[in-house]
Amino acid sequence: MMMICKSIPSVLAAMALSGCMMTDPSQNLVGTQGGNNVYEFSVTHYADPVGTRSYAPQRDSFARRLCPQGYRIIDERKGVKITQAGVRLLSENVIRISCPT
User: Fold this and answer.
1) Is 0.85 surpassed by the pTM of this model?
2) How far is residue 38's CA from residue 32's CA, in Å, rounded to a whole number?
3) How far is 83 from 53, CA to CA, in rounded Å?
4) Which of 1, 17, 54, 80 is the most exposed place for a label (fewest CB within 10 A)?
5) Sequential DSSP letters for the chain
6) Are 62 and 94 in contact (CB under 8 A)?
7) What pairing do the DSSP bridges indicate for beta strands 72-85 and 36-46?
8) What is the mean pLDDT of the chain?
Protein backbone atom coordinates (compact mmCIF):
# COMPACT_ATOMS: atom_id res chain seq x y z
CA MET A 1 0.00 0.00 0.00
CA MET A 2 2.82 2.40 0.84
CA MET A 3 4.35 2.05 -2.66
CA ILE A 4 1.02 2.96 -4.30
CA CYS A 5 0.66 6.09 -2.17
CA LYS A 6 4.18 7.23 -3.02
CA SER A 7 3.60 6.77 -6.75
CA ILE A 8 0.34 8.77 -6.92
CA PRO A 9 2.09 12.18 -7.18
CA SER A 10 4.26 10.81 -10.00
CA VAL A 11 1.22 9.50 -11.85
CA LEU A 12 -0.61 12.82 -11.45
CA ALA A 13 2.43 14.74 -12.71
CA ALA A 14 2.75 12.45 -15.72
CA MET A 15 -0.95 12.92 -16.53
CA ALA A 16 -0.64 16.71 -16.31
CA LEU A 17 2.46 16.81 -18.50
CA SER A 18 0.95 14.48 -21.10
CA GLY A 19 -2.07 16.74 -21.60
CA CYS A 20 -4.49 14.45 -19.76
CA MET A 21 -7.32 16.57 -18.34
CA MET A 22 -10.12 15.83 -15.96
CA THR A 23 -13.42 16.83 -17.53
CA ASP A 24 -16.31 18.08 -15.42
CA PRO A 25 -18.78 19.79 -17.76
CA SER A 26 -20.44 21.71 -14.92
CA GLN A 27 -17.21 23.61 -14.28
CA ASN A 28 -16.90 24.67 -17.92
CA LEU A 29 -20.56 25.60 -18.58
CA VAL A 30 -20.90 29.34 -19.27
CA GLY A 31 -24.49 29.51 -20.49
CA THR A 32 -26.89 28.48 -23.20
CA GLN A 33 -27.44 29.51 -26.81
CA GLY A 34 -30.72 28.48 -28.36
CA GLY A 35 -31.33 24.99 -27.01
CA ASN A 36 -27.62 24.22 -26.63
CA ASN A 37 -25.24 24.39 -23.70
CA VAL A 38 -22.17 26.60 -24.19
CA TYR A 39 -18.88 25.56 -22.62
CA GLU A 40 -15.60 27.47 -22.39
CA PHE A 41 -12.15 26.00 -21.79
CA SER A 42 -8.55 26.86 -22.50
CA VAL A 43 -5.71 24.92 -24.08
CA THR A 44 -2.09 25.88 -23.50
CA HIS A 45 0.55 24.83 -26.01
CA TYR A 46 4.04 25.81 -27.10
CA ALA A 47 3.97 28.79 -29.47
CA ASP A 48 6.14 27.16 -32.12
CA PRO A 49 5.49 24.78 -35.05
CA VAL A 50 5.62 21.67 -32.84
CA GLY A 51 3.14 23.13 -30.35
CA THR A 52 0.88 24.37 -33.13
CA ARG A 53 0.60 20.84 -34.55
CA SER A 54 -0.39 19.44 -31.15
CA TYR A 55 -2.92 22.19 -30.40
CA ALA A 56 -5.86 21.07 -32.58
CA PRO A 57 -5.82 17.44 -31.34
CA GLN A 58 -5.75 18.68 -27.71
CA ARG A 59 -8.61 21.12 -28.35
CA ASP A 60 -10.72 18.52 -30.14
CA SER A 61 -10.07 15.85 -27.51
CA PHE A 62 -11.20 18.12 -24.68
CA ALA A 63 -14.26 19.27 -26.65
CA ARG A 64 -15.25 15.64 -27.35
CA ARG A 65 -15.02 14.83 -23.65
CA LEU A 66 -17.28 17.77 -22.81
CA CYS A 67 -19.72 16.96 -25.64
CA PRO A 68 -19.59 13.30 -26.66
CA GLN A 69 -22.78 13.80 -28.69
CA GLY A 70 -21.05 16.38 -30.92
CA TYR A 71 -20.06 20.04 -30.70
CA ARG A 72 -19.56 23.19 -32.74
CA ILE A 73 -16.80 25.72 -32.07
CA ILE A 74 -18.45 29.13 -31.76
CA ASP A 75 -15.45 31.21 -30.62
CA GLU A 76 -11.72 30.63 -30.50
CA ARG A 77 -9.42 33.33 -29.10
CA LYS A 78 -5.78 32.55 -29.80
CA GLY A 79 -2.83 33.92 -27.86
CA VAL A 80 -4.92 35.12 -24.91
CA LYS A 81 -1.90 34.77 -22.65
CA ILE A 82 1.71 34.29 -23.75
CA THR A 83 4.26 33.22 -21.12
CA GLN A 84 7.92 32.30 -21.18
CA ALA A 85 8.74 28.61 -20.57
CA GLY A 86 12.50 28.36 -20.62
CA VAL A 87 13.63 29.17 -24.15
CA ARG A 88 10.14 28.55 -25.59
CA LEU A 89 6.88 30.49 -25.33
CA LEU A 90 3.56 29.08 -24.14
CA SER A 91 0.35 30.32 -25.74
CA GLU A 92 -3.05 29.96 -24.10
CA ASN A 93 -6.10 29.81 -26.34
CA VAL A 94 -9.68 30.10 -25.06
CA ILE A 95 -12.37 28.11 -26.89
CA ARG A 96 -16.17 28.24 -26.65
CA ILE A 97 -18.20 25.33 -27.96
CA SER A 98 -21.91 24.70 -28.34
CA CYS A 99 -23.36 21.27 -27.50
CA PRO A 100 -26.85 19.92 -28.02
CA THR A 101 -28.56 19.22 -24.69
Assistant:
1) no
2) 5
3) 19
4) 1
5) -HHHHHHHHHHHHHHHHTT-----HHHHEEEEETTEEEEEEEEEEESSHHHHHHHHHHHHHHHHHH-TT--EEEEEEEEEEEEEETTEEEEEEEEEEEEE-
6) no
7) unpaired
8) 82
Burial class (CB in 10 A: 0-12, 13-18, 19+), 24: exposed
| 79-88: Cβ within 8 A, 24+ apart | 79/47, 80/42, 82/47, 85/46, 88/46, 88/47, 88/48, 88/51
State pLDDT tens for residues 44-90: 999 898 898 999 999 999 999 999 999 999 999 998 999 998 889 99
d(CA 29, CA 40): 7
- Who's near 25: CB < 8 A, 6+ residues apart? 37, 39, 66
